[in-house]
Design a protein that fits this description.
By secondary structure, this protein is of the alpha+beta class. The chain has one domain (about 1-85). It is about 45% helix and about 25% strand. The chain has a three-stranded antiparallel beta sheet. The mean pLDDT is about 95.
Amino acid sequence: MKIKDGFMLRELGDGFIAVAVGERAASFNGMVKLNATGAFIWKTLESGCDRDGLIRALTDHYDIDAAKAAEAADAFTAQLRKNGFLDE
């Protein structure tokens, strides 16, 4: 899994936003607000990884168990897929 080219994550105040840039901006008008956990997952997916790698990154970074990490990873990536941000 990887975030599609044409989307950028930027820190804005105490949160983060993802916006479309370049040609991608023609098909996606708007922005997505993310909290720190969402931004961490987004950044992890920018370089690409599989589900297991994402779960490992979450468990290492947040010191949570694999089940909770899997739940967060699955919920977030489902939203990314639904909104067209994710390359499989």
